[in-house]
Amino acid sequence: MFGRDHGVRLSRLTATALATAAIAAGCVGAPTIGEPGKLTVVTTTTVFADLVSNVGGDLVSATSLVPKNADVHTFEPRPADVRTIASAKLLVMNGLGLDDWLRKTITNAAAEGTPLLQLGVDLPGAALLPGDTSGTQNPHLFMDVKYAELYVDRIAAALASADPGHSTAYGLQAAAYKQQLETLDGWVRAQIATIPEPNRRIVTFHDAFPYYAREYGITIVGVAVEAPGQDPNAGYTAQLVAAIKNAGVKAIFSESQFPTKLIDQLAAEANCKVVANLYDDALGDPPVSTYEGLIRWDTTQLVQGLS
Ligand SMILES: [Zn+2]
Fold first, then answer.
1. Are 69 and 224 in contact (CB under 8 A)?
2. How much distance in Å is there from the Cα of 24 to the middle of ligand 1?
3. What is the CA angle 102-115-9, rounded to 5?
4. How many Å apart are CA 290 and CA 307, to the nearest integer?
5. What is the whole-number distance in angstroms between the Cα of residue 137 and the centre of ligand 1?
6. pLDDT tens digits along 280-306
7. Model confidence over 107-150: pLDDT tens digits?
8. Ligand 1 centre and the CA of 154: distance in Å?
9. What whole-number distance in Å separates Cα of residue 8 and Cα of residue 11?
10. CATH code reported for the domain at 189-306
């Protein structure tokens, strides 16, 4: 069981506290994280840290600011995070509203000159889906394995730029990892194909699955919250319950980094079952401690819950 207790609900820091921490980090000078001789990369989420580790191999030390099982959407950096950011040679985030708190923190961390890779922003080859408010885009591109491969290309280029002496190694490691992701993509397709077609309809806690759903042929009937950190109003929930009943949804899926209470209430009202914890924005314990493990886990839960 992973609830918000396992995550980190962080207290709001004042700008003064962040600035003080940044000055302290500057005075100390030496990096407080990473390993000697390795390129220090700091990512917003554990998912991106795993992608970076796969491309960087032994040449890179990747650290995530948001811990495993925690929620990136409502994350608020602590003074220790400001020091971590200050020690990075490369910063990696998604953008599109997933983790935009990083950009504000960079200024406070005196890391303005550090290269910042925004994996989801203006991604060549990606067709974006709408976000939770008008004019925004859904940020969860990485849940489509094909798009994760595009992220890998960007990571390889950014690592080569930050550490040109090892550009060949980064290129080779990225190619090998992309091969692994191609195999994963094929496996997902084969698994989803085993679910009877009328059953391929889901409800999740937040809107993390539209790219996965589009790529692999699942229909998202609805999400419990329009955005993490916002409680839905009664009208929204009533509409969702009606949609769930209307579509004959077999399963409402809880997500590891969010509390289950709302999903449980929804399932009770719609008279359907909560079947499993899905993982999306954050990794967890094995077997969900890698991106590949996460995709395999979620796909297996969908197959079991919908078949
Ligand atoms: Zn999310």
1. no
2. 32
3. 20
4. 26
5. 12
6. 999 999 999 999 999 999 999 999 999
7. 778 777 899 999 999 999 999 999 988 999 999 999 999 999 99
8. 21
9. 9
10. 3.40.50.1980
8 Å CB contact between 202 and 251: yes
| CATH fold match for the domains 4-184 and 189-306 | yes
Q: Which residue has the tokens 């409502």?
A: 74
**Quick count: other Cβ atoms within 10 Å of Cβ 157?**
16
Rounded Cα–Cα distance for residues 75 and 52 (Å): 21
* Distance (Å, whole) CA 204 – CA 214: 15
Q: Is 123 in contact with 150 (CB distance < 8 Å)?
A: yes
How many A from CA of 204 to the centre of ligand 1? 11
Domain boundaries, given as residue ranges, for the chain:
4-184, 189-306
What is the rounded CA–CA span in Å between residue 293 and residue 154? 21
For 4-184, CATH number out of 1.10.10.10, 3.30.200.20, 3.40.50.1980, 3.40.50.1100 equals: 3.40.50.1980
Q: What is the pTM of this model?
A: 0.89
